[in-house]
Amino acid sequence: MPIGFHWYELIPLVLIALLIFGPKKLPELGSSIGKTIKEFQKSMRDVTEKPEETPAPTPQVTTSPRPELSAPAATSSATTPPTAQAPTPQQPPV
Question: Which of 29, 43, 64, 87 could pair with 69 in a Cys bridge, judged by C-beta atoms 3.0 to 4.6 Å apart?
Fold first, then answer.
């Protein structure tokens, strides 16, 4: 049996969609689905026809948005408290 929908299989699906979305929303829904499929096919066609025109990736320079991470601050150690380190758990002897 071939895979696909026949007209007698589509009738219940259309009726359920009509009950769920209503007669006003159903044409809008069909139109948006059609546009989405057309745009997807167009983009796939563009990708398969022009593989050599992809631009080379440009190197990106990362900058830190926080000023305290980008350069060392010229503040004294008295204004910033030392960070406490969590004790490391010791393993019992085996």
Answer: 64
List the structure tokens of 26. Answer: 């159903």
79: Cα within 13 Å, side-chain hemisphere: 4
As given in the structure block, the two tokens for residue 77 are: 């150690």
Phi, psi of 16 (to 5 degrees): -65, -40
71: Cα separation from own chain's centroid: 33
Structure tokens at 53: 């025109």
pLDDT of residue 41: 93
Q: Is the pTM of this model over 0.70?
A: no
The dihedral built from the CA positions of residue 12, 13, 14 and 20, taken in this order, carries a sign that is positive
